[in-house]
Task: inverse folding
């Protein structure tokens, strides 16, 4: 039986809000035989106490109804075989389901495809955390392990159900840590270790087919010609650089030597006038179109980035492909391998010329 607790007036009021909301999809109750089912979780693992940036959260009993916020958390829950009762719409790189190819495939496998009676409720986060919609799903736990929720958000969500916030840095939780923490919260620690091992093995085996990756230096950043912040760099605490490191590449010295500029964040700006200092074999970025990629090469300052000059800029124009690494998780990473590795290999081989 699912844990019970007082959820305050917010939960009761939310039922009406959800039924009228045009931003949410899925069954209003958020609960079916598939959605929210955590049969595999071990009841003997509870109670558990999980520490995070806002203190610690005690989960007294095995949660049956799981709601999530932000990116990654729903994907990890699905990777562990648990369909959330509620999860955010994907509103960047999304498909017609407000979802992603890897999430749709897993939902199908678990008998809860979007649009079916078993599907999770989906809610928009374009205007912030969807407190009312989350409360209406009547969750036993709310997963925010990969997120940037504020302490105020945390307190409000905690009135609905126990919340597992991120451990240290906003949007900086490694996918392995997200998987292990969520596994612990759901009584699925052994399964979480299996998923981490299987995913890391898949990445290792795939990257072995591309020997040019080994030892190549890289920078992953944003490039915006004529933008207010033309250059931004993702620090080593972000999942994008972590992925390239897993492939055998090495983060460029210019990044590691300037991590203080990140101030504990996953990202820091870089002056366009210093573009020529961004020395690396490969520079990876995401752009809106091929026209933007051309504009980077023609920009008087951005064109001075060594990788741009040398033809080893990887400019991804596919938002779904970008999302697979920016919101890295076990199921997105497996999908990403065939999408990213050939493109990265082309740049890595060009760097050897």
Result:
């Amino acid at each position: 039986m699912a844990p019970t607790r007082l959820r305050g007036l917010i939960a009761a009021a939310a039922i009406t809000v959800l039924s009228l909301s045009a931003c949410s999809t899925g069954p209003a109750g958020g609960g079916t035989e598939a959605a929210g089912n955590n049969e595999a979780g071990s009841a003997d693992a509870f109670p558990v106490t999980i520490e995070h940036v806002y203190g610690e959260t005690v989960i007294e009993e095995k949660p049956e109804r799981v709601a999530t916020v932000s990116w990654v958390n729903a994907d990890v829950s699905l990777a562990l075989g648990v369909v959330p009762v509620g999860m955010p719409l994907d509103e960047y790189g999304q498909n017609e389901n407000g979802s992603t190819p890897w999430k749709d495939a897993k939902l199908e496998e678990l008998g809860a495809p979007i649009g079916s009676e078993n599907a999770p409720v989906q809610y928009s986060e374009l205007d912030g955390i969807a407190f009312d919609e989350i409360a209406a799903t009547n969750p036993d736990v709310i997963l925010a392990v990969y997120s940037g929720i504020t302490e105020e958000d945390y307190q409000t969500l905690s009135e609905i159900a126990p919340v597992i916030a991120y451990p240290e840095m906003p949007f900086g939780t490694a996918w392995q840590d997200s998987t292990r923490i969520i596994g612990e919260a759901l009584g699925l620690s052994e399964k979480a270790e299996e998923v981490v091992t299987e995913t890391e093995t898949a990445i290792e085996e795939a990257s072995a087919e591309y020997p040019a990756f080994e030892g190549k230096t890289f920078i992953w950043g944003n490039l915006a010609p004529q933008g207010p912040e033309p250059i931004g760099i993702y620090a080593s605490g972000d999942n994008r650089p972590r992925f390239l490191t897993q492939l055998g590449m090495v983060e460029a010295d210019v990044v590691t030597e300037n991590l203080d500029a990140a101030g504990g964040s996953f990202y820091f700006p870089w002056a366009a006038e210093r573009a020529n200092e961004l020395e690396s074999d490969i520079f990876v970025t995401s752009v809106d179109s091929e026209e933007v990629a051309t504009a980077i090469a023609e920009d008087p300052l951005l064109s001075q980035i060594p990788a741009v000059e040398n033809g080893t800029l990887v400019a991804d124009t596919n938002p779904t492909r970008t999302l697979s690494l920016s919101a890295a998780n076990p199921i997105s990473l497996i999908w990403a391998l065939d999408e990213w590795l050939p493109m990265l290999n082309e740049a890595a081989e060009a760097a050897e010329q």
Notes: Residues 211-350 form a domain with the Rossmann fold fold (CATH 3.40.50.1980). Residues 16 and 86 are 16 Å apart (CA to CA). Residues 1-33 have pLDDT under 50 and may be disordered.
